[in-house]
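Example with several molecule types.
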Amino acid sequence: MMKILFERTGGFMGRKISLHLNLDDLPSDQAGTLKHLLDEVDFLNLEEDKSASLYARDAFHYLVRVETEKIRHSVHVTDLSMPAALRPLIEELSRLARTKNSQ
Amino acid sequence: MHAHCSILCITPPHILREIARNGTPAQQEVAQRTLLTSASLQAKRSSMGGRLAASLRAIVVGGKDRTVYDAKNGTSLPGVKVRGEGDPASLDPAVNEAYDGSGITYDLYLNAFGRNSIDNNGLKLNSTVHYQKGYDNAFWDGEQMVYGDGDEDLPVSERLFNRFTKSLDVIAHELTHGVTQYEANLNYFAQPGALNESMSDVFGSLVKQYQRAQIADAADWIIGEGLFTENVNGVGIRSMKAPGTAYDDPVLGKDPQPGHMRDYVNTIEDNGGVHINSGIPNHAFYVVARELGGFAWEKAGAIWYKALTDKLQSTSSFTDAANLTFQAATELYGSGSLEEQAVKTGWTEVGIDIGVPSENEGCFTSVMRAIGFIK
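Resulting structure tokens for the full complex:
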């Protein structure tokens, strides 16, 4: 079992979008893509909270939480504090959340 | 606030003007900056006379220095330079919008308030367009403006947002975050954060009105006009005239902004609701501008600018802002003036009385209030 919670808050509009995924319920290619992106960034070993630039205004804040039977790990980042290796995962989750929220 | 520590500080203005016209290029630059700084300080102490603004326009040579970069859908900032100051227009509309938008914003700050760029010292105006892919946002990173292209990566029928340079007030909003950073430096949480956001909306709207030569009654007071695609039922992101009415859409929901203190939203999200509760000071400004009539940047804008640059502090609350804009109106236009009365009316209409002592909260109290732990 693997679940992903994704939340994006802040931004110029201050609007929150979110996504709850159970990888067991996703088509295998989509689940595989997400698992690959999590592995690529070694997600479970990422620092949990990377603070934003002191003067950044209107940037997005992101929360990604991954849960398995054994472990639960959350990472908070902003557009400016995000490690480059995490960006493909955030972009994919953002796309899925925006698609879900536009339907 | 910036000062030049040189002999030019004590040089009479008429000699500085001569140096600005006839000195070597380096002397001209220093003299122009010194004149701008002292003129700006004078402007803050006076009523922003048109003569001063005209003399400032005459001496500023090369004060506006814009560069637009292209992130090419990546996230490295600033990206590849695509247009510099004075370069011909690009074939890319986002590049031209960022260039023209930062230019008209610079012009309003200079012509109405005697301010030379973000830091009042000629700071370069750097913008990056095409940030990331499917990035429905714009932000100020502490040094420059950054714009995404909206939902360009989704099918047309699913897109909610256009590119963020499309709206002039968004550009002016982001640039104003820079001005605030160099002036009151309002904390980005709870009420100081909402004031920070409101200042950006106020000057964002004023730039749009300035470009259109609109008086207060003719303006739409909408922030983010043109950002939504035709799939959205809304006119923009926020309404200063009627907070909470900018959009009401099956996907986006309803505009959550309050326009009165009785509807203040306590939340931990969005840095304590900085984009939500900004509706309250936004509406106060709108009422002041409505009461005074004419071009909103001339009086209401001058009062707010004086408060932002001379009076507000990083921890200022809404009550502080009410009292300090009232003070600014008194200093600019006199005790018992119509302008002073208009400021009082503006804050009263949003449920804030002038003259009530401020309860400046510490960070801990602000957080506790934001999450609803205390009332």
